[in-house]
Amino acid sequence: MSHSASGVLATEGFHAPGPIDFFLPDFTGKSWNQDGYQVLLTKSSLLLVLGAVVAYLFLAMTSRRGKVVPTKGQYLGEQAYSFVRNGVAQDIIGAKDFKRYVPLLVSLFFFIVVNNLFSIVPLLQFAPFSRVSFAYGLAVLVWIVYNTVGIMDKGLLGYLKHSTIPAGVPGWILPLLIPLEFLSNIIIRPITMSLRLFANMFAGHLLLILFSTGGAYLLLHATGSVVLKPAGVFAFALGVAIGFLEVVVALLQAYVFTLLTAQYISGALASEH
Amino acid sequence: MTPIFLAAATTTPEEPNPLVPHVSEIVLVLVIFGLLFLLVRKYVVPAFEKSFAERRDAIEGGIERAEQAQAEAARLLEQYNAQLAEARAEAAQIREGARAEAQRIVEDLRSQAQEESARIVARGAEQLAAQRSQVVRELRGEIGTLAVELSEKIVGQTLSDDASVRSTVDAFLAEIEQQQASGAARAGGPGGAA
């Protein structure tokens, strides 16, 4: 866990985990953008690639031999795929247009869910999306997609009108409403979307570091009171509980991200507000 | 005294801002996700959709076959019912026809018999009338002759060629005839007595 330059388990005192713990070093030993150096080949980047590979392998292996009567693996893959295809794409975008967006939504969901679950896989123990740039990247992609979809559907002006002027609103309030709608539909969406994913994974990982390193510190190094060692055990127990919570958060955040993507595409396609 | 209470204060001031974007990482995630998306679109989605479609076909094919069989059965039943109804209607028609025919025959026979009896009655009456007039005619001549003969015998002289005698007899007979048919019988009485 202690990738930071200033060791967490320094003998002279407990060092609380912080943002620095998410700035992992690459093979040269540089840990974050000091003097404009672009750190790329880090554990988080490798995990991101691994996440894509695992997500693809899961989907490919469960879909490869599509039988009418599915095997167990195929059934699992089909259930997961159908969850996104029917539960997200079809339900949100509607039966008419959803098929075009199934590949995007399926890729998004499985890419994020696998990467998020890395946060509690032993030895990996890091969620790439607790690096905000990865979340930014996906959010920018989604932003481009839903705006392009809207512009292709209604033309540039038509789309701007569609996304900034709600139907059935009196004219005098429009000067107030148009900037607000523009802000919320065009500017804020990718930011909230990326920050939601990032912050959940970031906070979860921070909690895990805190409870595990704190527990270890209390058990091994803290002196002065008799309750500190039991408190360390308690901290580890809480850490395990947080670990289970992380599974839920990992699934939920992948679902939310995919759901919002579908929602935005659907909103861009909708004929009326 | 224990360092744990100092923990919160130990964050170093040079810690980086976690919200600052790193271009290299943004590019990386776009490339990686782009590859994943292309692969998923090319292989995964078609494969899943294909197996879904096959399954749907298998199920819908079975349903369709069952529906076809059911439709066939319904069609046959309808046909059978239609034929049955047709046969029933035909039978009823035939029965009705027969009844009407019988009635017609009875009616015909009755009217025929009535006509026949009327004709017979009429002919009888005709014959009767003809015979009666013949009898009357014959009797008239005979009675005249007999009366003249009788008068000759009574009076003792010849009256037969006297025209006045003849007209007297005729007038007498006409008078008798004017009375009832019983007059004819009375006119025969003297004839019989002679």
Protein model, in words:
Chain A has helices at residues 43-63, 72-93, 102-117, 132-154, 156-164, 174-220, 228-269. Chain A is mainly alpha-helical. In chain A, helix 3 packs antiparallel against helix 7 (228-269) and helix 4 (132-154) packs across helix 5. The longest helix of chain A is centred in the last third of the chain and has 47 residues, at 174-220. Chain B is rod-shaped and about 200 Å long. Mean pLDDT of chain B is 82; it is low at 1-12. Classes of the chains: A mainly alpha (273), B mainly alpha (194). The interface between A and B is large, with 62 and 45 residues.
Structure in a nutshell:
Chain A is an all-alpha fold and 273 residues long.
List the main descriptive attributes of the protein structure presented here:
heterodimer; A: 273 residues; mainly alpha; 7 helices; disordered N terminus; B: 194 residues; 3 helices; 0% strand; rod-shaped
Structural topology:
The complex is a heterodimer of chains A (273) and B (194).
Chain A: H1 43-63, H2 72-93, H3 102-117, H4 132-154, H5 156-164, H6 174-220, H7 228-269
Chain B: H1 23-155, H2 163-178, H3 182-193
